[in-house]
Amino acid sequence: MAKLRKMLGKLDNPDIVVLMRLIETQSQQTLSQWAIEYTAKVCLPIFEKQLPEDSRPADAISNCRTYLNGEIKLAQVKPFLKAAGQAARDADGFAAAQAAARAIGTACSVIQNPPGALGFVFYCAAAVAYDRAGTDQKQDVYDRLAEEEIAAVLHSLQKAAKPDEPNPVKIDWNC
User: pLDDT at residue 169 above 70?
Assistant: First the structure.
């Protein structure tokens, strides 16, 4: 069996290109809420299916929501972001859960790092593909599933996007 990739998807995927342009029109608040809610809906169940006793990704989501509601400060959230990253490292051997934890950690980091609004998509695509197909398929199976998930992510942001956001993020994609 070939080594599984941490991320799935390609920057030249037409849906990724559209997603990048749409991200550039949204505020950090909108992007944070969207990314966190998307991973809570899609990735958290994948993680919890394989590692139900580990609450670190759920705790990160919960604390980011609390931060976005203005109830706590960013400094109070940072330990939960770090813990979500550690949950991903600790999930070695559970490909879908590991990718899901990476997606959640990256989505949660959008509160301080807007480019994570694109980064989480590639981890999420891997989490969904490995969850649906297992870990012993050929790469073309994973690529097809990743493309389907990327299209779903794009559709989700199109629904969440606010027209004429007054303070869109400024991102240098470096890619």
Answer: yes
Q: Are 36 and 173 in contact (CB under 8 A)?
A: no
Torsion of CA 2, 104, 46, 52, to 10 degrees: 110
For residue 36, the tally of other CB atoms under 10 A from its CB is 24
Cα–Cα nearest to 40, from 26, 14, 23, 60: 60
CA dihedral in degrees (98, 101, 102, 103; nearest 10)?
120
**Cβ neighbours, 10 Å, residue 3:** 5
For residue 156, which of 5, 26, 57 has the smallest C-alpha distance? 26
Q: For residue 165, give the nearest of 42, 33, 38 by alpha carbon.
A: 33
pLDDT tens, residue by residue, 7-18: 999 999 999 999
CA atoms of 58 and 40, how far apart (whole Å): 8
Identity at 69, one-letter amino acid code: N
Can you give the pTM of this predicted structure?
0.96
